[in-house]
Amino acid sequence: MFESAQLPQKMDKKTFRKLEPELREALLSAQLEMVEKKPFSTIIVVDGLDGAGKGQAIARLYEWMDARHLTCNAYGDPMEEARLRPRLWRYWRDLPAKGETAVVFGSWYQKAMRDRIYDKIDDETFEHELAKIQRFEKMLAQENVLLLKFWFVLPREEQEHRLKKIDKKGAARHVLADWAALKNHEKASKVGEKIILETSKGHAPWFVIPSQDPEYRDATLAQTIAGSMRVKLDEGESSSIAAPPVVSAWKSQSAVDAVDLTAHLGKADYEKQLSKYQDRLSDISDTKAFSKKGLVLVFQGNDAAGKGGAIRRVIKPLDPRIYRVHSISAPTDEEKSRPYLWRFWRRLPRKGHVGIFDRSWYERVLVERVEGFAGHDDWQRAYNEINEFEQELTDCGYTVCKFWLAISADEQLRRFKAREEIAYKQHKITDDDWRNRLKWDQYAIAAGDMVDRTSTDFAPWTLVSSENKRHARIEVLKTICKRLEDAL
User: What per-residue confidence (pLDDT) applies to 250?
Assistant: First the structure.
């Protein structure tokens, strides 16, 4: 799930120094307006792997914000006063008043995380604990608390490097939580992923921050806090519109941004591989094992990225009786009168069949988010709802393959112009395509969030460079064949 955590997320010091005044201004402006109007309080939960720099990041927040209205609450093992009361008592006790902000270390997630990592509780008990936490957080949100949760991640090698540096400095190791010790890196990451997938809601979202680079980490943290405060402050006026990036000069890099668009496949190799993988797909779809499974294919990507062309290469070797292509556009009045997933449930294929979605339920966190058709809480909540939907599909024996086809802005412009000039392609270009192009950066941010929050073990995203269409089509076919072979 943590694709962006493995990317070389960097911000040079010169860029950071230039950005810092803008970040400070955005944070202070939002904080002081909140202090003055007192419309809500803010709780910032900071969790993640040891050595990721959580303390350093919060120290910088204290430099940038008004410390008189900022409190840091650090929780370790409960003292006797807390042990004699319900587990959540101390967190209720320390809730900030309206207009105030509290930073929480060692939050209500800590005990459940530690117990699951060390196998003191089983999955069922862990799920029960998470359900109780979700009820707690929902109650806070309903009482007008802005709850922001950050998970700081590091590759194992970088965590080991940092822990060694702490040893050399003779720092007190007791400040590092046992649950995230280096030897438990893999399990801690998996438990963290489960927590994020199950407890990231519109009223209490998780934000995953790659923490290899301190400047990148702290800028992302500050930008997210300031932007979220601004959305909450402006509720009632523009809450249905996605908040624009607080900082115009820089945006964080996502897994989508990191797609290598130079990938290329020559015509001769393409023809050879096309025949190979189409034959494989045909053979797989004819097996008895496939008749007991279902296949769902999701195609998303930049406008003009070649989704239709890729789909045509997929369906060519298939029996037309076993597949159906669904081209998803704006919902009808009938569909808008029901929960947004309703129209996709109705289109699911039966076992032994293939459902192909040219755009999908992910429009909730793309078009509906960027264009303001869905409220802030609605599209934030959708990440978890989509994960649960796809989990249900896989539990029922479906294979879910999701593709993001990526092209550059320059290549998109070239393809748009070509569509206008070629008569039989003119129907492919609309005024909406040109309008969406003006919001390229907003769509890029939304796509990056989508991949980070919905790429799971059971339904991973495949990010495909589509600058060269031949390369993209083969990558799609190859991935489908491999996923099916692994599943059957």
Answer: 56
